[in-house]
Amino acid sequence: MYKIFKSKLLAILLLTTGALAININQSNAQCQVSANAFPQVVCAGDAVTLSATGGCGLLMMNTFDNGTIGTGWSSTAANPVFTNPCGPGPSGAHLWVGTTSSQTRTLVTIDYDVSIGNCSVNWWMRYGEISSSGDCEDPDQPDEGVHLQWSTNNGATWTDFPGPNSDPVGPNSTTPPFNTTTPGTGGYWEPVGVPPSPPTQSVYYWHEYDSDVPPIASTSSTKFRFAQLTTSNQGFDAWGIDEVEIKCPTGNLTVNWNHGPTQLNPSAVTLPSKGTSSYDTCFVVTVSDTINSATDSVCVTVNPIPDSDFSLSDSNLCGNDPLTANYTGNATSGGIYNWDFGGTSVNGQGPHTHNFSSAGQKNVSLVVQENGCQSTKTTKTVEVHPYPSVNAAPNPMEACLNDTISFNNGTQPDSATTWKWKFGDGNTSSQKSPAHLYTAAGTYKVDLTATTAYGCSDSLSGLPITINPLPKASIDTNWIDYANNELEFNDASQPGNSTSSISNWAWSFGGGATPSSGSSSSENVTYSGQGKYTTTLIVTNNHGCTDTTDIGITIYKLKIPNIITPNSDGYNDVFKIQAIEDGVLENVSLVIYNRWGKKVFETSNYQNDWDADNLADGTYYYVLSFVSPRGEEKFNGTITVLRK
After folding, report:
1. What domains does the chain contain, in order, with CATH numbers?
2. Using one digit for the tens of pLDDT, what is the confidence trace for 482-505?
3. Which of 82, 232, 491, 502 meets the CB 3.0–4.6 Å disulfide criterion with 236?
């Protein structure tokens, strides 16, 4: 009767002595076992799947791991390869067929004594899957599949194994993976689900199969073969087999693993971490019946999980400042380091220095791989702060001495908290937008440094400020027509320095003057009558700097000197030398001499009266002098003092 066994045969056979084919009989049946683990090298915390191939009563156990057809076969017309050209198989190397040009590809065993009955053939098989020529091309015709056959006449005739359609023994065998050519015949695997459409049939993937040897074939001299009777040509219709077993169990099979399970394919085992070093752990399996037993072991290397710890030189950066990351974990320099600096990938243990091109919150992460083990990702965050962009606008940039300059601060973004102004004349300011008064003309270079709360600074240097000198206003006068009260006013101002010149004049002569104002460097003015007048001049140099001055102008009329006597009391001893109108001239000097030339009286503030009461009667000589617009005026004459 056909049997189905569920088992898991993994991709690596760790301990093998080659492909064995043992011709046994009922009286000397043996046990064989091969322990397997997948994967052989794991990371701490990973699960390892253990499996064992074999049992007791084994006639053949062929894994092809030594890269040959192995023992137990009498002939082959398959020209197999053992390089796994189409990917890994169940364990180690497998036998792959597809390079021969033979129309019939066969693998034939030696004669086996299966007369004891209850024997079976167990193996793994798959078809090629690529719909093009080559080592992996798929069987794509109904007659290009593989037959499992037996012969009891030394290969003269061959018969397919009978029985129901064969499902895989593996765990995903919920649907028959193929159809047989004749119902009730289980020895042929017809290709279906041909690529390039997605192959939904399991025959295109590795699966384990198990078929019972029919009673009619249970003789003392029975051959078995895998046969592909029809092919398109060399490089087409590929297929492979692995882990072939022919077994005739002689009693109840007992399985024991040293870690407890009692089945060939136990549950997966999770291997713990043991610090930061690798370690090896071994698993031992024993199979036995009532007569014989066999033991095998498989060892697994457990590597530690590397950590991905690292340190950063700073958590707050300015603009394009460099950030340095140092690895602080337990991996070696030979590990694989995958750094991510805000989207920029960097490899190698480091340390690494990176400059972020933009401001904002940035993530730095690291994943480390070593000995096939990968760390969890470590991520740290840094804040990249923008540099301020310094901008300053002096108002104005060119000014006159004693003008105040306002410095408008336009730094962006408005995140700076401290300011350092240098005005170029030795003075500084920490205000955001200060005002400054320069006390000397010249050209100054202004510097500004703006700093944020995170220490991010930007500077502006050499902003030019020009302070121009003031002109010195001055007026010259000249009488043009004394009798008609006409004067000439001339600008006598100094422009400020050698690069300056007077470019504008604004005269104001006041009421009673014609004209009352003027805008030339020289102006002629006529006054309507006597009195005191003020003339004002505002001059502007070519830099727009101004100065103002004014002078007083006195207009008066002279009279012919006249001596008025006697006095009101009848005595001729008080005189008025009336030469000018009252209250017009000042600082008038009067000197009186006697007949002998002796000075008997003198005043520098004569006010049109003189009392000769203290003088004796007689004749005296006087000198009256003052300064008029014409220059120094001087009058002289005689006075007779006579009392009654």
Report:
1. 73-247 (2.60.120.260), 310-385 (2.60.40.10), 394-467 (2.60.40.10), 475-555 (2.60.40.10), 563-641 (2.60.40.1220)
2. 778 889 999 999 998 988 999 999
3. 232
